[in-house]
Amino acid sequence: MKKWLISVMTLALFSCKPIAEQPAKDTANAAPPVTQAPLTAELSIEHTPLVQRFGQVGLQVQSVQASPAEGLLQVMTNQGLFFSSADGRYLVTGNVLDLDNFQQVRGQLVPASLKEQQMRPYIVSKMAELGQSYIEYKARNEKHVISVFTDPSCGYCRKLHEEMADYNNAGITVRYYAFPRAGQGSDLHLQMQHIWCARNQNVAMDTAKAGKTPERAMCQNPVQQHLELAQSFGINGTPAIILADGQVIPGYQPAALLLPSLQSQ
How many H-runs (helices) and E-runs (strands) does the chain carry? Predict the structure, then answer.
C-alpha cells in the first residue's frame, strides 16, 4: 500500500501544474470561445446548504447523488467529483478507497478509488461529445488511442511530444486536447486558439512544442470547451492522459510504461 501511494505521488511529479493567469496581448483578435453546455441534473431545495458551502470554496455544484459509501454524497462540480456529508459541512478532497475492491496497478494489488470508479463513465461520455475536435498523431499500425490534455509551454508535454515516434511505433495514436494552464484570457489560451485554427494544426502544434511561436490564425474553436471539460474531470495539470475506458493518468509516461495499462483495457 505504501509503495503504491509513493508511485502515485511520483506520477504527479511528471506533470506541469497551473500557472498564474496572464492577460493575452492581442485578445482583441480572439474569436469567442466555444463554451460547454451546463449539465442538466436537477438540484432539490434540500441541497441548498451544500450548494452554498461549496460555493464558498469556489465550487459550482452541478449534481448531487447518493454515493456507494454510506453516509456520503457524491457531488459533481465544475472542478470534478467530490464526496461530502449531506449538509456539505464536511468535504472530502482526496480519494475514497474501497477496501472490499482491489485491483492491479503497475503490478501491485491496491484498493480501488471510488472517485475514479464513479468518474470513468462520465469521462467516456463527455469525451465522445467533443467529436473530432482533437489534433491527432496517428499510428500507422494503430492498436490503441489515447487522449492527452496538453499545454505547449509544459516541459513534460514537450517531452511526450518529442517521443511521439515511440508512441506511434508502439501502435499508440495520440489525440491532443487543449489545456492552457494559465486559463482563459491568457497568452497561452490565445496561442492554443492559433494552433487549433491553423491551416495545418500538426505543424502549428510541432512549432509550439518546439518553443517557437505558431502563426496567428483565428476561428471558432474548442479551446475553452476543452479546458472547462478537463477541469470538470478534476484535471489540474498537464499532460493528462485519458484511456478509452475513462481512466485518467496524470503526468508524462513513456510509451513502454504506458503499454501495459493499454493492453489491460
Answer: 9, 11
